[in-house]
Specification:
Elements: H1 11-14, H2 30-49, H3 60-67
Helix pairs in contact: 2-3
């Protein structure tokens, strides 16, 4: 007899239910929230890196220049 392990359907990995604006083209789900969060964090990082610009980058400016 096999163990009682049940594999969830493939759609449970990539298709999440809508959290807001259900059944509209503007529906917000987990994927949209993650994209917005990462975009906001990236904007904060790049703004912080561009605050004090110098000819020879140091610190966060160096990290931002090497990542792009």
């Amino acid at each position: 007899m096999l163990a009682a392990f049940e594999v969830p359907p493939f759609s449970h990995l990539f298709v999440w239910e809508d959290l807001a604006f259900k059944d509209t083209p503007f529906a917000i789900n987990k994927t949209v929230l993650l994209v917005l969060l990462v975009s906001a964090l990236l904007c904060v990082f790049l703004i912080a890196a561009s605050r004090k610009q110098s000819l020879v980058p140091t610190g966060i400016q160096n990290a931002a220049e090497t990542s792009s």
